[in-house]
Design goal:
two-stranded antiparallel ribbon; mainly alpha; 5 helices
């Protein structure tokens, strides 16, 4: 325990052993001498006829306000992005579902902040307070980024070349802005 009475020990996210990406191992001559699985990023997608696992029904459930949750669409776009890069087989569908659900909930919270504003009325005092949607949005955004980094880390560790280009995470802001315009 620290002098100020708070606990500072224990494991922290991202504090474990750092793994080199595959392309760095190949540049170093594979110092571990283990068999390496090599994925090549190409400009044209190599279509192999691999079937996308169907998203669960909860990803496109009807919301309380009558709208449809956009998680299934995010799931499909992300899976297609991974499949074009021949990485879809490396990512568990459950991880992709968690990412899609978190991203959809983040966009819902941002839409609520746009609709209702940043401030809310405190239930007992009646004073102005931060809208609960702001905090929820921040939590979902953090969770979405953490899940995307987990997906991207799997790709990075298994690719022979460094990937540079657009990814589904880049498209999230575009979706959010489109939602705010009411399209």
């Amino acid at each position: 325990m620290a002098k100020d009475g708070t606990n500072r020990g224990g494991s922290r996210v991202g504090s474990g052993r750092k793994r080199k990406p595959l392309y760095e191992k190949l540049e170093d001559g594979n110092p571990g001498r283990r068999k390496l699985e090599v994925l090549e990023f190409t400009h044209a997608p190599d279509l192999q006829g691999q079937e996308m696992p169907p998203p669960r029904e909860m990803l496109s459930a009807t919301e309380k306000d009558g709208s449809t949750l956009e998680a299934a669409e995010i799931y499909e776009e992300t899976w297609n992005w991974l499949n074009e890069r021949d990485c879809a087989h490396l990512i568990m569908p459950q991880l992709l579902e968690r990412y899609a659900m978190s991203a959809a909930r983040w966009m819902q919270c941002e839409a609520a902040v746009t609709e209702f504003g940043f401030l809310a009325k405190h239930p007992t005092t009646g004073n102005a307070m931060q809208s609960p949607y702001v905090a929820m949005s921040q939590n979902f955004m953090t969770q979405t980024n953490r899940l995307w980094l987990e997906i991207y880390q799997i790709i990075r560790e298994n690719s022979a070349t460094e990937f540079i280009g657009a990814n589904p995470q880049d498209d999230m802001m575009e979706r959010l802005l489109t939602m705010r315009k009411g399209k």
